Every structure is written in structure tokens, then in C-alpha cells.
Amino acid sequence: MLDNLEETLFEKGFLHYFSNLRDTSTRHLLFLFLVSHICVVTNSGSNFDLNYIQLFKTLDSVRSKLQGSIAEVLKTVPGLPKDWLTLGRLCSPRVLFYFEQRPPFVEENLKPLQHLMEDQIYRLLRKCRVITNVCTNSLFAIPGNQEFVFFKPKQQDRLTFLLELLNDTFDIGAENSNDFREFLNQHIQLAQTEGFSDNVGRHVGPSIFVLPPARVWFDAAFKLYDFFSNTPADGSKGFQLLRSILDVEGQFSEARCLKVLPLALAAYQENLPSHYSSQYHESKKAQAKALLSSHGRGPAVQKFLTRLDVDCDRFWLHGRRMCEAPSISGNPCIQPVHRVLSDENNDNKLSVLPHVSGVRYVSACSCGRRQANREDPYDVKYANYDFYRLIEEDCCGRLRHIAFPIFKPSGDHFEAAQLKGVSKSLNFAKDVEKLITGTEDLSLGPDENEFPALSDHLSQAAAGADDHDESQTSLGKGDGAEPVEEENLMEMTGTHDMPTISTRDFSTTEYLPCMLHVHSPPGILPRYSSWSLVCLGSSSLYSHNAGLSDQPGFLTGSGFLLPWDIPVRLQHNESLQEGRRMNIGYSGKGKRGKQGQHEFTVKIFIGVEYECPRGHRFMSSSPGRVLKATGAGLVKDSAQLITQSDVPLYLPCPCPYSRGGKALIAQLMRLHIVTPKAAVHVTVDPKVRPAPPPCPEFITGFPEPVQLSPSSYWILRFPYVYEDENQIYTPPKEVTWNRAHGNQIHLQDCRISEKIMDDVKQGIQYAFQTQNTLTLAISGTGHAGMEAAICNLVERNDVVLIGINGIWGERAADMATRQGADVRTISKPAGENFSLDDIEAALAQHKPALLFLAQGESSTGVVQHIEGVGALCKTHGCLLLVDTVASLGGEPFYMDRWQVDVAYTGSQKVLGAPPGTAPISFGPRAVAKIAGRKTPISSFYFDMNWLGNYWGCDNQPRKYHHTAPISSIYALREALALLASEGLENSWKRHRQCRDRLISGLAKLNLEPLASNPAARLTCITAVQVPDGVDWKSVTSHAMSMQRVEIAGGLGPTAGRIWRIGLMGQNATEERVDRVLDVLAESIKGPTVMGRL
């Protein structure tokens, strides 16, 4: 009942609740007048409350309206007396007035005062026509010749008076005369013998008085009660009248809101465009609601807000709604809601229009010699194929193109192949028992593809006179001053033609619905090629001194290709049968070496080109660096690093539009290759991975690397977007270019970081056994988790109850005090925990807003049982905060099942990760507490509104809050994966078995745990009492120096009294337990470490 009351008050407000409560109470009062012979009306003071008159008149009016409905109800009662059915009630009940206080300064005899009050009440009720001559026509009657007013003779509280009356009625206790009983009995005896006849005047008939059997009365009473309690307000005219009379505030509120509603709707419709987005719709609707809320009054505001919401939605949906279909890059369509040609099953009444986001980009064609506006793509075919086909018609359509493998149907009937989806990412599963299958699949070390990488393998093969020519000629490199390294040599062995594609092994009825990648099923090709390889012409088109003069959009100093000098070894065969002679063109100086060998250097020019959405283009000098030539056009870099390394797919563009530290994203779009005049085979076999594994590598589809013709200028265009069976890979939303570090460019790939963070969130949810949305890892140690929880939940003067049985309760109390809280404590000696009775008594006494308990008190080796505490806190309206730093993963913990509102832990204990992160989770009640704060959170760094957004807990675009400790986050993810791989129950069991084994071993050494109660002993940390006469420090020093085993001492009040042995995470093994026991036995018995006190 209290929960329903709280919910009603929160949703609809006090006025609405009070109006319903008053309506219900009045109905029940009318019910009493219908089933009673005598009604006693109490007055809290010694004066008659005039508000009763209005209430009596209201009840009488409603009774008259309900007469027919009441008769219908009474007809269903078997054995009902006819007079009761005719009158609708037993009689016209007598009303007696009881005054709880006697007037001041009066004599002991109250009879004269009672008679005077009777006369006044009678005249008042007659004048207001509450009572009439014929009592049948009135709500009630007043006796003409009997007392009906009683003043309480002595001051008593209401409960004592009623108890005395009850005791006297049933002859309990000593016999004492009760004036009120005598006053009441005279009316009861008359009702039992003669009945009431309270009509007055000369020409009145007899009164109706019914005294039914108890069975009939109860049957009728129950049915009437059900009628009065469950009939809705609009179910009867009588109840409608009752609501209208009582709910004056509601009527005023209705009238007020009816006037404001058209104004609010007009405010919504003011200055609207022809069609608009849902976001703009919600914004305008919020303005209209604010207007209605500010000018409306009373309980009807909520109902009219709902009505306004419906009216605004109806107006928007009927011809004003924008399509908002997202493009590949996430921009909404700005057309009116419509359908496209492919939507066969949609509403045919909608017009057929293409999706248009209004966003345009500038892109160059496949050859790069012409730029045009590109519409924001809605499908991969337009992005990778249609756009370039359109622009190539006026540019590079006549140039030499390499045809990539595509699907060629054998007839008119073909379809997309049905592919089984590949897992998009290795996420933590929601299933508690099978979070992940194994840690070997979840490596968190540095990945070579941390940047989406292009594996751009340029392989070279040399051409000789004949495939069987085995003679070799070795020449020096350059001018012959330096020796030639073997790995940098290319052997010229023959020539190859352009690749030919055989379609005999490929399907002619099914096509690949996505792009080709290394995991694509064999024998299936896409319908179009997302790649392009075009030859601009002769290699003489490029001048290294002038740079790329016919390529628009290049940033100043970046339109150059990188030279690559390659030593080549030519082999001659002196016994050529046909006496053929090789004519090989080359650059650089040659040198004749050994007999039959000749070595020389060829020069290849290579350019890795990036392009940003504004059409700015630049070359890269090395992975992650922008090429910048000198003012004289001199390029100091070579292509050595580019050809031997993977390069990032995305870079921040250094264009002048990058302001405020943010840059547009430039994407790798073209590879420029100028092949030498020498008969050197240059092959290209690009592979692109736009996201980390399991994203596949995308390929061109050629079975062998593509061989480029010599003395030519080739350009390989990469796809604009990448698509596999599961998803489309788009560029990251933001990159940060740190100008303070010179040429170092920091690229933030949002997909990578968000995926890792999402994995960590799911791992924390598994460890805590919760589905809480606000779950994350704080950048800091376990103390950071404690302080974050307290500063978010506690406001000044809040009562905070701290359970102290060790140092961590003391720390929590200190932090809460610094927040201005009213800190109360409950304490237990070191080695003991709190019972549910202890906690319930403290909650009832202090009525706190927050209760803090440490599940694992590491300073004393005590475990606090949490099960049942959450239910107690919820009953007492209190939040439960639990410290699990020393217990999570080693002790059972069910956050949702145990109704824990906030829990935090540390990464370095059972989880076994390096210190520096503090997993934390907030339940729904805690989130509501944060949202309802009256004051800002005292710490910006620990503000959960910011941190929740930073970790993606609020389904809003993420904002920068702080620089997270990346290595620690990766390590935490690996630790959670290991925990999930083992399984929580197995981990709990392993730690429990190791603790029990340790306790048994300590008993053999005559050592006792600090916690005498076995149920209070923590599994992860065991506190051992230092025996009398033993110097604890000498024992720990001996164990560390001689056996490399660290045993900790006590903390705070237990310092010098105990040893603390931690068996957590990877240390919780039987082997480690036995080793600790051996070392402890040796350290205690050794004569060098004994210290008699």
C-alpha cells in the first residue's frame, strides 16, 4: 500500500491523490449512513465544526441520485425486508454528536451545557434543511425527546477512551460507571425494542425502521460496500455529482488547463517548417509542455500534458514528419517521410523519393584528376561504384582500367547468396554461466591492427631474357661505392601478362551480397567492384621536381610521390641458342661485377594518398605522418617505410579547417605507383582491415597479385566504405590531433576504445552479478571507488550509517564526514561481523539515507554477510553501499539478488590486475538518488553523470571526461576474461578450499585465526593472531628475505597483533598454501627470529 501511495504521489502529485482520498472517504461515510441505525459524529474540540453541514448536504444529494442504483444492488440480496428495499436503507439513522474536549471554565455538571449545544445544533441543521419534519426525506434524524450531544467529562486520549468503553461493554475489569455508555445505551435499547420514530409535526406518517437478521445485514452490507468502493466516478450520476462537489480544485484545474491547452498547441505549431525531425519535434513539444505546466494549475495538468503530447504527435505524424533514415555515416534523411523503390511492403500512399541527408562531400574520381560533390551515401553500391562510374564518364573513362572479378549471371534468374553471419566482436555474453568460452580467444596485448591497417604488399620480380637462363650478373648499387645487400636485390627472371580471370569456377546464379574478404565463401563474387586500378599513361607524366600538377585538392607541399631505389641483379646466359640480346632500360649508374653478372638500381615512385570529406588530399611519408616537402619542392623522405609497413586507414587531416584541436578524418583512398622503364615486374596485392579483429581483411578478388606494366603511372583506388556479412565499417567519429607533439599524430579510433570499454562493463556486470546500466571502471584504486560512491550518494546533512569492524569502515566514515554528512556508526570488535538483527536495530534507530558495509574487511580477515541486508535497507528507505575490494571473485556476491544499491571493488585483489582501476556499479535506486540531488556532486572527477556518459551508460554520444589509463583498462579486461573463463562459482570454491586448507595447517602450528567464528572468516585474507612471545616483524622479515614470501602485518588497531595472509586470484592454489605454511613454520621456530617480549 505504501509503495502504491509513493508511486501515485510521485507520478500525479499530492492534489490528485488527496482528491481521490477525499472521494473514497466520502463514499465510505455515505455507506455507513445507509447500513447503520446510529451514527456517532465526533468533534475533536468543544465546538461544533460547521464544515459538517456542507458534508451532510453533499451526502444527502448523492444519496438521492444513487437511490435507484442502491435498490438494484439490494435486489440481489436474498431475504431482504421489503421496507429496506423500498427505502434503500434500514432507517433514517440517528446521529449523535460526541465532543472530545469539555469547554474550559465550566462546572462539573455538564448537562446544561449539553442541552444548550443540542438546541443550537438542532436549529442550525433545521435552518440549513439538513433535517426535516419527515425523517425519511433526510440523510439522518435527531431525536426529539432524548439527548444527542455528549461532552467527554475528563481529558483522555482517544485510544484510552475507546479501550475503557470496550472493557466496560464486555464487563472486563472493575465495574465503573461510564457516562458515554449510558448515553449510548438509551438509543440502542430503543432501537432494539420499539425502533426510531423521529418524525415531527401533525400530519406525518409512521417512520420505517428495519432490524434485519445478522446474515441478511452482512450480505447486504458487503454488496453495498463493493458498490461504493469499486464503482468508477463516471459509472453513476451520483458519483459524478459527488466528484464535482468535492473536487473544487480539480474543476478549477480543468477549466484553467482548457484555456491554456490551445495556447500551448499554438506555441508548438509556431514557425514550424514544412517537415521536421523527431528531435525538433520533441524540442517544440517540450516548449509547449513547459508553457502548459507554467500556466496550468492543479491536478489536471498531468492529464492535459498527456493530451497535449497526443495532439502534438498527431500533428507531426500527419504530413510533417521527416524521414530521418540514417545514411551510412549516420546522417538522417531530410526528405518528408517517404518510401524508396525497394520498399515493396511499405505504405503505398507515401511518395517515392530517394534518401537525401543534405550532407555533401568532395571526392576525386578514380584517377584523381577531377573532383566532384558526393552525396552522403545510403548504400555501399553508390559509395564504392555508382559515384565513380558517373564521374568517370567525363574524366578517366577512356583510360586503361583493370577489370576486377565480379559476378556474371548466366540468365535472368539469380539471387544473393545466403551467408551465415560471422561474429562481429568478441563481447562478454549475457549468460552468467558462459560469459566467454576461453581466454585464449580474448587477447588484450598490443595489437598490430590497433590502427585500421592497409597491408599494401608491393612485390617485385625481375624480368630476364629466358625462363631457363641461369647465368647471373651482379652489379653494385648506385655509383658502385657501397656493397649491395642480398635482401635488397631483385632478380630479373621474366615477364608476365595482365591477370586473366576465369569464371568457370564461380557461381552464375548466386552473388556475394557484400564485399570480398578473406573469409568469403569460395566461388561467389560481388555484383560490382569496389576497387579501381587505372593507368594514367606513361611514367613520364610524373615529374618529381614539379610533383602532381594535374591532381587537384592537394595540400601545399604534399603533392609529391616518394622515390624508392631498388638494387636489381641481372643474370645473363652466355649460351643463348638464338643469340638474343636483352635491352634493359635503367636509371642510375651500373657496375659490372663477377663474370656473367650485372647489378644496377631502378627507381619506383610511390604515393599513399589520403582524402578528407572537404576534398583536401595529402600524401603520407611514413605510417601516421603527413608528407611535407621543402619550400623548394625537395622531398627528403623515401618510400622505404611505406612499403615495409602497414599504414593506418584513417588519419586526421592537417587542413586549415581543423580548429580547436579537432580535425576532419582523412581516409586512405589511392595508391600512386610509377613503375620504372626497366623490365621490372611491380605487383600490388592490397588487403584492408578497417577495424580490429574479428573484422576480416578485404581483398580485390584476384587469385594472384596484380602485375603492373613497366614505365607507367598507375593509381589504385580503395573502397570508400567496407562491408562484410554483418555490418558496414564507417570511419571513426572523432580524431584528436595533438599539435604540441610536432609530427606525432594521435588517432583515437572510437570503435576500438568503445568496444574495449563495453567489454569491461559487461565483465564487471558478470563479476557483480548485476544488470545495472550504470556500471563502469573508475580510473583510480579502491579508495577512488569508495570516494566516488560516497560523494555521488551523500549530500550535506544526510544521515549516513557506517559499519565499523576494521579500518575500511573508519575510512568510509572519514570520507562521509568530509561530504558534510551526519555520520552515525555501529561497531564490532576486530574479528567479528554484524548480524541482521544488529543492522535492523541500527536502521530503525538512526533512519539513515545510506548504509555502508565492507563485505571483505581485509584489515581483520572478516567477511560480512550481505544477504538480507538489502531487503532491510529497502524497507527502511535506505541505500546500501558495499565495499567488495578484498572479496569480489573470492566470496559469493549477488548484487541484484541481494538488492545492493552500490558496490565497488579494486582491480588488484582477486581479479589479479595491476592496481589503478576500481570497478563500480550503481543500481536503479542509487541512480534515482543521484538524479534527484539538490546540490551538485562535489567532485568533477568522480561525477557519475560525466563518467556514465564517458563509459556509454546513458545511450548518449560520449563526451571527453579524462584520459583513461589505457594499459590498466586492457589489463582489467583480461583479468575479467580470466575470471569469466574459470567461472564465478569455481573461483569461489577454489578460494574457499584454499582458506580451509590454510586454517587446518595453522591449527597444526598452534596458530589461531583472529575471527573465532568460522562463518566470519574471509576466504581471501586470513588474519592470524601473533602468539605471545613472538616478534611479528621478525617473522615477516625472515619469510621475505629467506623465502621471498611476503606476509603482511595488521592495520590500524590490529597493528602488531596479527599477520595477514592473502590467498587471492592466482595465489589461491594448494601449492601456495603449503608453501606459506612451511615458510611460516620455519620463520616462527627459527632462533634468529624469536623475540621474547
Automatic annotation (TrEMBL):
Gene3D superfamilies: Aspartate Aminotransferase, domain 1, Type I PLP-dependent aspartate aminotransferase-like (Major domain)
Gene Ontology molecular function terms on file: alanine-glyoxylate transaminase activity
A Pfam family: Aminotran_5
Catalytic activity: glyoxylate + L-alanine = glycine + pyruvate
One example of a Gene Ontology biological process annotation: glyoxylate catabolic process
Keyword Transferase found: yes
Positions of the Aminotransferase class V domain: 754-1050
Region ranges (Disordered): 459-483
Coiled coil feature spans: none
Family to which the UniProt record says this protein belongs: Belongs to the SMG8 family.
Purpose of the protein: Involved in nonsense-mediated decay (NMD) of mRNAs containing premature stop codons.
Protein name according to UniProt: Nonsense-mediated mRNA decay factor SMG8
The organism of origin for this protein: Simocephalus serrulatus
